[in-house]
Structure formats: C-alpha cells, structure tokens
Amino acid sequence: MVKALPIVVLGIIMVSGLAAPGKQSHPCSSKFNAEAPGTGVEWLKWDEKTREMFVLGYIVGHDRGSRQGCIIASDLAPSVWIKPGCLERTRTFSETLDSYAGMMTQYYQKYPEDQAIQAVYVLPLLSDQDAKPLEEIHRMANNCALFMTP
C-alpha cells in the first residue's frame, strides 16, 4: 500500500490541475470538446483574414440552415409556405466581419480560461438579437449556460 501512495498522489495532482498551473480545466469542460476544431486556442493562432472567413462561414451557414429549416417546416404543413415568424426568429449579424472577429479575439484574450470553448458557442451571443457583453458571455460559460443557447 505504501508503494502505491506516490502514484495516487500523482494522480490527484494531475486530476486537480496542479501539475499545469494556468491550464486548469474549465468548470464546464464536460459540456464541450476542447480538442475540437475552432477553439479559442486555435482562433488566436489564426491571422485576421482567417478569423473573418470563419465568421463569414458561420453567418452564411447559420442563415442558410435557418432558411432551410423554415422551408422544411413549411413542407410539413403545405398550406403555409413559410411558417409565420420563422425567419424573424433567426439570428442576424449586422456588424462587419472584422468587428465580430475583433470581439471574438478580445474575448479569448481577456478570458484565457475560456480558450478551450469553440467559437460556435460564442458567436451566436454576439448576434443582433443577443448582443451580449463579453463579461456576460464569460459568466455564462462559467455557469455552463453558454452550452444551452439555442
């Protein structure tokens, strides 16, 4: 039993995050995949143009997906081409690409503990409808509420 003690202590140190100061696990790490593409760590390695292209891809994909979802909903109820209010409930992004990219960069730089979170969880909260301040997004991330946004 005494020989196993150092291994147990090492395990506790590794699990608690004490082995890597500044790299402790996020309180909601079970809600996201820190190894997935598009995390804040990856975001900060990209140049400005790549960041803007990511934002553009997200916005275009979100818009097309929302429109397609409304059309599919209409197909399920053929008497209405697009359900009333369907398109109005989709998020819009009226700022410039560099503005959104700048906000994302500022978020990941200001809150390095959130860098394991994918940008697709943060970007919707910068939309015209949500327009959350970065501090509130950080609070949401720490309360695991960020991962429950529609």
Can you offer a commentary on this structure?
The structure is a single chain. With 150 residues, the chain is mainly alpha-helical. It contains six helices and no strands. The chain has one domain. Helix 3 (48-76) crosses helix 4.
Question: What keyword list fits this structure?
Answer:
globular, 6 helices, mainly alpha, 150 residues
Portion of residues in beta strands equals: under 5%
Main β sheet profile: none
Instruction: Kindly state the percentage of residues in helix.
Output: 40-55%
Summed up, the helix count is: 6
Contiguous low-pLDDT stretches (5 residues minimum) are 4-24
The sequence of SSEs as H and E is HHHHHH
Q: Which outline best applies?
A: globular
Task: Please give the alpha-carbon distance between the first and last residues.
Answer: 50 Å
Give me the Rg, rounded: 20 Å
Based on DSSP secondary structure assignment, what is the total number of beta strands?
0
Secondary-structure topology with pairs:
Elements: H1 5-16, H2 40-45, H3 48-76, H4 97-110, H5 119-122, H6 134-142
Helix pairs in contact: 3-4
